Structure formats: structure tokens, C-alpha cells
Amino acid sequence: FGDAGFDGNTYTLGLTGLGGSNPLPGAIVGMVDAPFTGFDLSNFNCVNIVNQPSPSSPLLIVQSNGWPYSWDWPSTCTGAAFQQAVALGGSSTQLYFFAGGPSSQTPPRPLQFPTSETPPAWYNWNGTQYEPSTAAAIKAVEATPAFQLYQPTSAVTSSQPFGSNFLYGYGEAEYAYATAYAELGPNAPALANTWWIDVETQGGWSSNPQANANVIYGALAFFESLSPQVQVGVYSNSYQWDVITGTSGTAAAPSWGAPLPPGTPLWLAAPGQNPTVVCSGQQLTPTTATGPTGPSVPDYAPFGNGTPRIVQYGDTIAFNPPGSSSPQPVDLDAWCS
After folding, report:
1. Would you state the pLDDT for residue 312?
2. In contact, 220 and 250? CB cutoff 8 Å
3. Could you tell me if residue 296 is left (phi over 0), alpha (psi between -120 and 50 degrees) or otherwise beta?
4. Residue 134 pairs with which residues in a beta bridge?
5. Residue 300: which residues within 8 A CB-CB, separation 6 or more?
6. Which pLDDT score is estimated for 112?
7. Which of 42, 64, 80, 143 has the most crowded CB, counting CB atoms within 10 A?
């Protein structure tokens, strides 16, 4: 309408209306001004992807681990399936892993590499936990922005350089990186792209918010200590971040829970919201009292003093096989300009 340009129609996308051989998944009942740029794939739906994204939609983020210290959960996105999912986005594909507190799985189990894969040379397991094993690695971790925010819960000594919660998070990140390394090979572009730490309330977190923050700082520090350094961001929303790392269990401005290193990229979960508005940093509130937030708690504002970079604003089943009896929605994401 007006001066709007023509961007094609459903038939140019290979869809055949509400009938035919490749129908729309449902009637179009509304339009949203959303800068669709791509989607992300969890372990639940990576093998359902049958249509590659168009060149104009390059954003693709793939889950490497569905639970702390797990090769894969559930076992639907390993080997060839994982490699195919990562390949959809080409060299720009980014990876994320589901993080959790020590109660999510205690103790962490050693990484069981498939017999066809070789563990990375730097991988280290001391029989109890993952930890930096050399003076150089310890020095690199101590120089990271995340370590500057770390508040140890026990005394730091030469034999135990970091507290157990920090090391648990460090190990989670190392484990996720190692599994992707083993699946994709040491030279895969995705390993060097931005990694995302998925922080949600289902992660088996402690009732101690500082302990939870230390776990996350450890995970951030692992990526920040790599050489060359790998950029790392956090996926969550203000409510969950504050419940997990804050002191009150309810969102409270302006930092929304524990602080993050300055400039930490945020991937904001904001279903049904206009990503342009969410990117602007406005403190949007849900319109109905759904879930744990209720209508009065700002749920889509930036948290931890981080910087919005991506907004997860909706989902689609268009990438599932036509006629699938149990289609898995694929989340849609937009870059913040």
C-alpha cells in the first residue's frame, strides 16, 4: 500500500496457497512490521529443516548442547544432522548452548566422544571437574572481563584457582565448545563466530543468585580466554535473568539482575513483540498475565547492562516437511541495527 515495494508473494516462495502440493501452514490473519532476517534451530527441530534459508535471510543460530554437560539432548541433532543444520547458514552460523546451575547435573560427567571423533588437544578433565590446567590458561581467564565481575564463594588458592561455581560454568562452556569441535572439525567457521549462553529458569539453578552469576561468569570467561578471543553473548529476558541472578526474584530496574561485562551482546526472547521496539531498549510489558511474569513486570527490556543484538520475536512451521503430523516450530530472529 502507498509507497511500499513489492517483495514477492507466497507463490514465489514455493507455497501453493491453502491447498495444493505445498500449502501454507495456516491462513494469514495479521501482519507485523518485522525485519525478518533468519531463524534459530534447537535440538528439537534441527532435523526437520527441509528448505534452506534464502540468501537474504542469513541469520542462523544452532544449538550445540541441550543440557549442561550433555553431548546432546534429546538425541536428534548430532553427527550429520548437526553438520547439515550448521551448514544452512554457511560461514555466518552461530552456536548456542543451554546453561544451568550445578544442581542441573551433579557431578558433571566426562565428555564421551564418539569413537569416530578426536577430543581437542586442550580438553582437560581432572576426574572431578573441568578447569584451566596451566598457568597460561589461568592467567588468560583472570584477564577476561567476566572474571573481573566474579565473586568467589570460597577462598582462591594456587591449587584451586577459581571457586567451584565459576569452574562449573567454565566447564559447561568448554564442554559445549568441545562437542561442536568434535562434530564440525577444528577449522569450522562456526567455532570462531559469536557463541550464545542460553540462560533460562529451567536450568536447575541454585537459590543463591550470586552462585548462579558465578556459573555464568565462568562460561563467559571460557570464550573470552580463547585465543583468538571468541565473542560471547547471553540469551534470556529481563525477568528470567533477574530471577536467576538477582536478589529479589522479581525484575527491578535498571540493571535487571547481575551485571554483565560492558557491551555483552544480548539475544532477547520477546515472542509476539515488534523487534524494532525491543531493540530500542523500551521496557515492554506483556499484555496479559501469562506465565510467571504477569502484566506489570517488564519482560523485554535489556538486562545486566548488556546491549540488544538479536530479538527472537516469533516462530514458524514453514520449514517443516509439508503435511508433517507433528511440526516443530522454528523461532524467527531479527538483528538489531
Report:
1. 94
2. no
3. alpha
4. none
5. 237, 238, 268, 270, 273, 278, 282, 283, 284, 285
6. 59
7. 64
